[in-house]
């Protein structure tokens, strides 16, 4: 995360240091011998409450996750709740069963664990956290998503991390697009004719 090439080296270095601190505090994973782990960062030009309103919806990940076609939650939305996710075609999976591990509305942290499904993401666990920041003079959100997962037989750590990171990057880009679109709508004032 070297941001010195944009002329704002001090601000970029401070942002990178803040992200590293948030990762140390909120993204602790126990990594086994045959597992890989990573953390990805996304800056979104929308305030934390708006972004959180999408992320916290364990029951509606399809609001911003483009690979999810359908989601059904069993029981109330609480720690331990299970959701059955249908995956859109084109990916090497059709379903995933996931458990809500943490939903912290004060700290803006959500954690899930995949406990079943027809895919190769065994022992997958992720944490996503949202943190306020200022982007272009407006309230923005620093989103960090980290994961740990088993490396499937026949794959390397690098291959596994690359695949999962690509999925998360796609989800984070979609989260940014949806959030920023909603933020622009909120800032738009009616035109008097």
Automatic annotation (TrEMBL):
UniProt lineage: Eukaryota, Viridiplantae, Streptophyta, Embryophyta, Tracheophyta
Chief site of localization: cytoplasm
Keywords: Abscisic acid signaling pathway, Cytoplasm, Nucleus, Protein phosphatase inhibitor, Receptor
Top-level taxon in the UniProt lineage: Eukaryota
Pfam family, one: Polyketide_cyc2
Species assigned in the record: Hibiscus sabdariffa (roselle)
UniProt KW Ribonucleoprotein keyword: no
Name of this protein: Abscisic acid receptor PYL8-like
Localization of this protein: Cytoplasm; Nucleus
Stated family: Belongs to the PYR/PYL/RCAR abscisic acid intracellular receptor family.
